From TrEMBL:
GO CC entries: alpha DNA polymerase:primase complex
GO molecular function: 4 iron, 4 sulfur cluster binding; metal ion binding
Cofactor dependency: [4Fe-4S] cluster
Lineage: Eukaryota, Metamonada, Carpediemonas-like organisms, Kipferlia
InterPro entries: DNA_primase_C (IPR058560), DNA_primase_lsu_euk/arc (IPR007238)
Record-annotated DNA primase large subunit C-terminal domain positions: 370-540
Gene3D superfamilies for the chain: 1.20.930.80
Protein name: DNA primase large subunit, eukaryotic/archaeal
Record has Kinase as a keyword: no
Origin: domain of life: Eukaryota
Keywords attached to this entry: 4Fe-4S, DNA replication, Iron, Iron-sulfur, Metal-binding, Primosome
């Protein structure tokens, strides 16, 4: 028997942001405890939407979604660019949901298509920003076109500037917020997702203007700061003549090298010294100059400032999203949870790994398949078979990866035990010291929850291993010296020549570790230009498809 879906009837006052709500079911206390931040399917935050009264039953696979009420939609303002204080580029600062009914299958397809768009865009954008070329933007447009279905035209319309075509503008907004809710359950996933959305934002900006953020800077900045709680910074776009009207300002900024003879505008940010992340510098010189309580930013640095603001705006409601997710978990609506779980698994690559790697990684094949491992796992593999030991962090990093790639627990145990036996560890000692921990990684002990594989951010954050202590975890692109040891290690592990990895090593030397890893994958698999490598597991599964 299907349970009635808990619903919320809401009246929204656009002026005050207040609402009068009534609920059916036992979830009213849960709903009232959530701030007006986000609306997801049948589980609503007070203050954002109106919804028709609850129905006893819905057709199979159908969900009621909330009406927008008096809130302006992202679609109208983002494509037309006529909304007051709104930029032409969609920033998703206003959570909205469409009226009517949407099939769960359609929602899931929209979200998965958006995931593919974000991953493809990240790969393309990462490569283009380090080796700019005139074909980069058109290539990006083609990638997005390939990943866009006839019911997901919002991305195509915005990226290609075809504002006259907008048959289903809801797909972009729905997929953005559903993915954001799904990723909110894990901090590492949220960071990765935020970065991808940021890359898409600036790809759209670059595609639209082929410059930095000069057009519509004021609207874009204003919309971003309104989404950040208690943010007081104001932005002014100043020409050289404007700067000369400020006593001593023009001369000072010229002496500092911020103002040049060109006609580039300067951006003045007031009251921003409470936000140190905006005080930007880089190896090429000063990005921003403080003068008499105002921060002056050059055009080449404004993109970095916008990145900081977008990250702050993107994560401002993270706590609210997490509470919303808890409310959904308590409601135990399998249809909604099914969507969120599927999106999480698609992000980590677990489902794909189980299908693609089923039966491929065993104790008999791991030696051969190790050439398909990412460097962070190849380093551990070679350390284990050369030093015959694995410290705690290395075991967790490696075992969770092997589990996600489909290697049976018995094979992992035998493989690790045989290697350590060469270092003097007896079978009885190994079983006593390590077997419980391995079974725990596989969800066979404790709370019976499988350990998720470490993502790139987690591995990078672990820092450099202590070689003297026998450690081997972490990211080689970060902890191995780029000019000396890193090239030698990659050549040894994968049988490459030094000329093959020059660009990879250069990128790693600039501290772009994840980008270096993506580039390295393409060095190994030159035939596959459409692969989406987002972490250690997908590095392996994409390599399997290339065999």
């Amino acid at each position: 028997m299907r349970h009635p879906i808990p619903c919320l009837i809401d009246t929204f006052d656009a002026g005050t942001g207040c609402s009068t709500s009534s609920t059916s079911g036992s979830s009213s206390d849960v709903h009232r405890s959530l701030p007006p931040t986000f609306v997801v399917l049948t589980h609503f935050h007070p203050g954002l939407v109106r919804q028709e009264p609850p129905r006893e039953q819905l057709p199979q696979g159908q969900l009621i979604t909330g009406g927008v009420g008096k809130v302006k939609t992202e679609r109208g303002s983002s494509l037309k660019g006529k909304g007051k204080g709104r930029s032409e580029i969609p920033l998703y600062t206003t959570p909205v949901m469409p009226s009517g009914e949407i099939s769960t299958d359609i929602i899931l397809r929209w979200c998965k298509e958006r995931q593919e768009v974000l991953k493809q865009n990240q790969d393309q954008y990462s490569r283009d920003q380090f080796s700019p070329n005139k074909e980069g933007i058109s290539t990006l447009s083609m990638v997005l076109m390939k990943q866009t279905s006839s019911e997901h035209d919002e991305l195509e319309c915005i990226v290609l500037g075809k504002s006259e075509r907008d048959p289903t503008g809801v797909a972009d907004v729905v997929s953005h917020w559903m993915l954001k809710l799904a990723m909110a359950a894990d901090e590492d996933l949220m960071k990765i997702h935020c970065r991808r959305e940021m890359d898409l934002l600036f790809s759209r900006i670059d595609n639209k203007t082929n410059a930095h953020i000069r057009p519509n800077t004021q609207a874009l900045f204003d919309e971003l700061v309104t989404a950040i709680p208690d943010f007081r910074t104001k932005l002014q776009v100043l020409s050289a003549s404007d700067l000369k009207k400020i006593p001593g300002c023009y001369q000072y900024l010229t002496a500092c090298g911020l103002v040049t003879r060109g006609a580039e505008p300067i951006y003045a940010l007031s009251d921003c010294f409470a936000y140190p992340s905006l005080m930007l510098t880089d190896k090429s010189g000063r990005r921003s100059i403080p003068y008499q309580g105002t921060l002056y930013v050059g055009p080449t640095a404004l993109k970095k400032v916008a990145m900081e603001l977008y990250t702050s705006a993107f994560t401002a409601d993270l706590e609210s999203l997490q509470r919303c997710r808890e409310a959904i978990n308590k409601a135990k609506d399998r249809r909604v949870l099914g969507i969120l779980d599927a999106l999480e698994h698609a992000e980590t690559g677990l489902d794909r790994a189980e299908e693609a790697a089923a039966g491929s990684l065993t104790i008999r094949t791991i030696g051969e398949q190790s050439r398909l491992f990412p460097p962070c796992m190849a380093a551990i593999h070679h350390h284990l078979n050369g030093k015959y030991t694995l410290k705690h962090q290395g075991r967790l990093q490696f075992w969770s990866y092997l589990r996600a790639c489909g290697m049976p627990v018995e094979d992992v145990a035998s493989y690790t035990q045989r290697a350590m036996a060469k270092g003097g560890k007896t079978q009885e000692e190994w079983q006593k010291q390590y077997m419980y921990a391995l079974r725990h990684v596989y969800g066979l002990e404790g709370k019976r929850q499988k350990m998720e594989p470490w993502g790139c951010r987690t591995i990078i954050a672990k820092g450099a291993p202590q070689s003297a202590a026998g450690e081997c975890h972490g990211c080689p692109f970060r902890y191995l010296p780029a000019k000396a040891i890193l090239p030698q290690a990659l050549q040894k592990w994968y049988g490459l020549k030094s000329g093959d990895i020059e660009d990879v090593v250069t990128t790693a030397g600039k501290d772009h570790y994840e980008v270096a890893c993506v580039k390295f994958w393409h060095v190994l698999h030159k035939k596959r230009g459409d692969a989406s490598v987002t972490g250690p597991v997908t590095f392996y599964t994409e390599a399997l498809e290339d065999k």
